[in-house]
Design a protein that fits this description.
Elements lengths: L11 H13 L5 H9 L8 H10 L2 E5 L1 E4 L5 H15 L7 E9 L6 E5 L5 E4 L6 E9 L3 E9 L9
Parallel strand pairs: 2-5
Antiparallel strand pairs: 1-4, 3-6, 6-7
């Protein structure tokens, strides 16, 4: 007796479509993926079937890494390179590094999909949530020279 060949629920074109959708928006929910897929093959595929197909394509859910959209542009990379060159040629000076960093408590999806072994990167615009900020001044010889934390962002730079 010959085993019957079961028809695949998703075609290679549909799998490619799903992968392209995830690459364009790694934070798509199961429901959003299912709705997009329904345009190409009614009736919709169950979430468990969709999950199995993604697992076969090594697409996994993981915590998302949020990066500003201008972080790794060619212009940014060139600026970092020129700064490092300048810095390395001025090592006779004692530099004091002054930095402010904020904690932003906005609500975002923290998980996204990507190929297994690849980070789940979500390109996101700057949001307008309230910040808690920290300002510090540090030198190589003296360690922490100044420290301050406050609600909201710093708007003016003051010299010490």
């Amino acid at each position: 007796m010959e085993a019957s060949k079961q028809e695949k629920k998703l075609s290679p074109e549909q799998i490619t479509l799903i992968i392209n959708l995830i690459e364009a928006n790694p934070q798509m929910t199961w429901l959003e993926l299912s709705r997009e897929l329904a345009f190409y093959r009614p009736p919709s595929v169950s979430l468990s079937t969709l999950s199995r197909y993604l697992n076969c394509e090594l697409i996994t859910m993981k915590r998302a890494s949020f990066q500003h959209e201008n972080r790794n542009t060619e212009e940014s990379k060139i600026k970092r390179y020129h700064y490092s060159e300048w810095f390395l040629t001025h090592q006779e000076y004692e530099f004091i590094f002054v930095d402010e960093f904020g904690f932003n408590f906005s609500t975002q999806r923290n998980y996204a999909r990507s190929k297994e072994g690849q980070p789940a990167i979500v390109i996101s615009p700057i949001n307008a949530a309230v910040n808690t900020s920290v300002a510090m001044a540090i030198s190589r010889n003296n360690g922490i020279i100044y420290f301050e934390d406050k609600k909201d962002a710093y708007t003016v730079f003051c010299t010490i």
